[in-house]
Predict the structure.
Amino acid sequence: MGILSLRVLIFALLCILLSPLLIAGVIIYTWRLRHSSVRQNISGTANEPLGGRLGMHVAGTRIDDAAYKIAGHLPSFTKLSRFLIIDLLGFASKLSGFKGSFLAYPGERPSKLMSMLSHRTYFFDRSVNDSLSRNDNPPKQFVVLGAGYDTRCYDLPNGLDIQCFEVDMTPTLNAKKKALELAGIPHDHVIFVETDFNQETWMEALLDSGFNPSLTTYILWEGVTMYLVEAAIKDTLNLVSTLPKGSAVGVDFFSEDLVKGNGPYEKISKAMHKGIRYYSEKIIFGVSTGEQLSAGVQNLARESGLTVSRFEHTGSKEDKLPPWYFFAHIDNL
Ligand SMILES: C[S@@+](CC[C@H](N)C(=O)[O-])C[C@H]1O[C@@H](n2cnc3c(N)ncnc32)[C@H](O)[C@@H]1O
């Protein structure tokens, strides 16, 4: 038996031993999610990427102190459920030495369903870091659209001169602000903008909050387009094209075939729609693909006068289920 298989085996055995506690944690988490979070219209799907980042944090593959701290004070996660699920998984990972699958960072390529989130996190970490740390015309504003429980504004390099904006719907932003305060995480450098991207006035809310359209800006738009109408997506890309040269957006898209349940995607599409309905949310938008997979994203960018500088997808073209999740770094050159 190879060393990797041994680690997987020990990790699995530890999880079985800890399963009563893990199950108790999942029950507490799920109860709060349904009875507190979703009832107050606080995004439930925002917990999915947070959960992924927490797993990587406790496995030690990608440190995210802010995510770990706020997870003690959310309507979904509390210190107790964080301990019962996240800390115990971290304990099993550290004791066994297993840091693969959903705990890996940057993770395997081609990525699989279990490593999809770490692939996405790595892609956008690079997109953000490359933009914010460049010497030539660095962005002066960092906007996180559909911020949810994203923590990149709280892990910026020391001395970076940048104004941050976190944009989301009111209940989710309020829950996050409260968690940041209770966790003692400084957030004076962040302006919180409450809005609904599916309303025509969302751009005005950003401008009213002090967003300066004449400054070079990096926009992180991770895990959001699938919940929006096409017009909101085109509006946002059009906004990026009106910003100064050097502005950019990091964005991900589901494929149109997945969202519509076409071709080989019927089963996974049904499961995906059902999973999201569990959070009382809805998947709406998917991008067309074409032979190169990137054709739809290229077209969207081109229509707004923008350029796709980096494009990746999960999975491989040789898979039974061809790739359906796309990541793009789009520049206003
Ligand atoms: C899956 S979460 C992603 C959160 C975060 N970007 C991340 O990757 O951790 C989707 C986020 O988009 C926000 N969102 C969805 N539809 C929105 C809308 N119409 N207007 C504003 N925010 C929206 C949700 O509230 C939620 O926080």
About this structure: The first strand starts at residue 141 and ends at 145. Strands lie at 141-145, 163-168, 190-194, 217-221, 248-254, 307-313, 325-331. The chain has a mean pLDDT of 96.
